[in-house]
Amino acid sequence: MPTIASAAHALGDVTASDSMLRRFLHGLPGVDAVGLEARAASLGTRSIKTTAKAYAIDLAISMVDLTTLEGADTPGKVRALGAKAVHPDPTDRTTPTTAAVCVYPDMVAVAKEAVAGSGVKVASVATAFPAGRAALDVKLADVRDAVAAGADEIDMVIDRGAFLAGHYMKVYDEIVAVKEASGAARLKVIFETGELSTYDNIRRASWLGMLAGADFIKTSTGKVAVNATPANTLLMLEAVRDFRAQTGIQVGVKPAGGIRTTKDAIKFLVLVNETAGEDWLDNHWFRFGASSLLNDLLMQRQKLATGRYSGPDYVTVD
Amino acid sequence: MASAFEYAPAPESRSVVDIAPSYGLFIDGEFTEAADGKVFKTVSPSTEEVLSEVAQAGTEDVDRAVKAARKAFEKWSALPGSERAKYLFRIARIIQERSRELAVLETLDNGKPIKETRDADLPLVAAHFFYYAGWADKLDHAGFGANPRPLGVAGQVIPWNFPLLMLAWKIAPALATGNTVVLKPAETTPLSALFFADICRQAGLPKGVVNILPGYGDTGAALVEHPDVNKVAFTGSTAVGKAIARQVAGTSKKVTLELGGKGANIVFDDAPIDQAVEGVVSGIFFNQGQVCCAGSRLLVQESIQDELLDSLKRRLSTLRLGDPLDKNTDIGAINSAEQLSRITSLVEQGEAEGAERWSPACELPSSGYWFAPTLFTNVTQAHTIARDEIFGPVLSVLTFRTPDEAVAKANNSQYGLSAGIWTEKGSRILAVASKLRAGVIWSNTFNKFDPTSPFGGYKESGFGREGGRHGLEAYLDV
Amino acid sequence: MSEKSEKIERLSVFKTYKLYVGGKFPRSESGRVYEVTDSKSNWLANAPLASRKDARDAVVAARKAFGGWSGATAYNRGQILYRIAEMLEGRKDQFVREVADAEGLSKSKAAAVVDAAIDRWVWYAGWTDKIAQVVGGGNPVAGPFFNLSTPEPTGVVVVLAPQESSFLGLVSVIAPVIATGNTAIVVASEKSPLPALSLGEVLATSDLPGGVVNVLSGRTAEIAAPLAAHQDVNAIDLAGADDVLAKELEIAAADNLKRVLRPQPVDYSATPGIERLTAFLETKTVWHPTGSLGASGSSY
After folding, report:
1. Residue from B3, B5, B268, B326 whose CB has the most chain A CBs within 10 Å, to mutate
2. Domain Aldehyde dehydrogenase, which positions (chain B) (predicted)?
């Protein structure tokens, strides 16, 4: 497996200094917004039917990071979530489990217990989620806390303020530090694309995150107005595709926030399939950060199995 | 593309369109047989299935149609513009209502993917009628002086690549300005024009205002030559365009010609690469490359040639070729056996002249007319495939070193219809665009069409403009 | 011997009329001339009888000049057209004489024609930087794109000058062609080429780059045939052709799809419309995506 050091080698040590990093990121090809969105829209017209749809629904279920990130989260709520992740559809045991549950650090231990033995991972947002406005020490403590509680995956947020101020090295160093603090846990780096605002920024952030050792790049916290969109996810899929081509390192992608329907989820899978390719069609490399999406996937799954439309009373409330 | 995620067939339902076993000519508001009783068959290029048998107009029929149009002209041109407008609005609306049916029909008769007829052809057809409808009562304000007069009877000959859209480009401005028309659709794609005749009837359009004469080249020539035709509008090959220009010499017939092209798609090293790749792909593979404004020459800056070609090849490998009615099909059938053999022979010539041919792994259906997306590298200006219009899914890749060289190579063509520029540098776009000798320049995009925007060529790509305010001029005595 | 002082009338200096090609004044490559007479058949001068080769040279000169002239600012072209009017004003007497001779007009009528011709240059001088605004503009595209249609010169234009109106007609067909940035090869009135050849001298001293206007004299049909068929000519104004010649030339012009302006009755004394300006313009539409400021939108 290629390492971060080899990535740096392949790219000529672009992270050696702030100015070199800046030059590299600003030297990435620009993004034409209209063209990008048109491509995403065009892929959105793919018609996924019958067997392909069944495959896509199960794949999508298996890619869900079933998420609760509320101030009002309680152990009871998290246990219920864990149970649902393990058995999304109690009436049909052939339903795949979700990829993970995603909770705040203080709920990791509860979640871990709830999914024990199922293969479902526990992901935890850390680094002063969602704003990320805290001292580095505090963020790292947050991360260590989650890891110590058993988190398999850490979802960190980048310092958007530093990014927008042009302090790329600061963002980079912070990701590297969090990566180190995460230990064996896989690191998802959230850019909060809605705040980075431009596609050029999203492409730069993607490369910055990958150079710093991200295992996943993730669009959003789900806490701002604009979260995952087909276009920004397409752009990030292009980034991981190109990064692997240049460094040999494969990085995952996680759109999060705003994906609520099966139709939407399938569109994202089409983006994966036709952009990064089938190597990413696996929950090790692609995730959906979502909560209500799962029930829609389950209802659609039931519809495919029975031929009749399901209703909300036939899936479990979260 | 071998993937775990295989898309199941998603065919659009053929039952939305009811194709009759035979069709007549549409003259003076009635479907009628050809005077000499001749008919020809129209086939589905993707299966070679015969779709219908269509009356073939001869000289006598042309004369009858022109007479009907002449008779109708008097009243039609005297109608208040606001009334003509309402007829056109009606037509636009009926097209919108029947767009699914027409999309399927067009896909069957032409072979192009339903994705394109549904998302490009039909919406543009309706938009074109809607746009020109609004002009009918505003001609005084169009910049041609007060009360500009129509020309009379327009003889219009259209190609097979966008049958209904080309019909719209011809008929909408002609009717808006008060002309009446006799239109000849291409012999391989007569059906949508005949369905349009039915739409005219549904709209209550007065008899004789629109006449449709299916037929071959000789029908078109008879129409162009008819002494009582005042206006000739032709879209098609440059060779036929030249013949028409000779035919009308010494007459008072006003002519507009939309002919061939060999569009250069210029990609600079600072281009938005992923979008450029998409633009190059849609530039040459949209409608199987059977587009006069196709970006059939890729001019890539030498410094990024490898990177761009890798991306392009990867992207081509994801194109889905097959049943045009499948909603996931990107590449449909070639329109006819004749066109297929023309493409094949030019591609063979490209190989014979030493260019390097590449196609993605791609299984072609066993019946019908098919050609795999093809890319040629090691092409120079001297190669036939860099000069002649192939009118198929074949891209010739050439390189350049500097903007000057890019412009010189782009302009080094008998044609001048379209060009593309890909760069993130605004001043370069403006500088290059101003130097390119072509009628439509797409910067950081390609193959975009809009009824408000004039379209047409420089040099041997023809003359006159279709679309927009400019498109009115072709049908007015100004 | 006594000397008788006899008053000798001064012998005037004749002008040798020459072609105007590429900013220079060559004799015809053929070395041939033809007699030009006034309306009463009195000999006026020998005019060069331009050959196919002169026509070919003129095309080369016009093509060479096209890049610079079409690339000049419209303001600059306007200034130069106005300069032509200024130069003509200073040489008015000469043109009045030549026009009077050529067209059999009284001096006062010829003066009116020359005045009108000068004013016509002024009229077109003002058009250079306005025509794009009149016939071009932005188009409201239904989508995230901006596009702009602008007129551009067609290229190298052959102009068969009117046979009768040797100066006002001549100016009326040249000025609109070059006002928009085209370059021209002008075939002078066959019968009355002298005002056209003299105009070349004015153009040469008006800051007009060499090759923008090239003036040939001779047999219209002979010179026009190779020009109409020339593959590096983009357009032809048939004003000076009769119906038979016009048809032949239009057929020849189809070989490379030249833009053809057919002969039509024109009252050159009336204010022209913009028809002659737009006849040799192409419309170029340039597109660019616009899109939103940020990546906040979703495609669907």
Report:
1. B5
2. 32-477
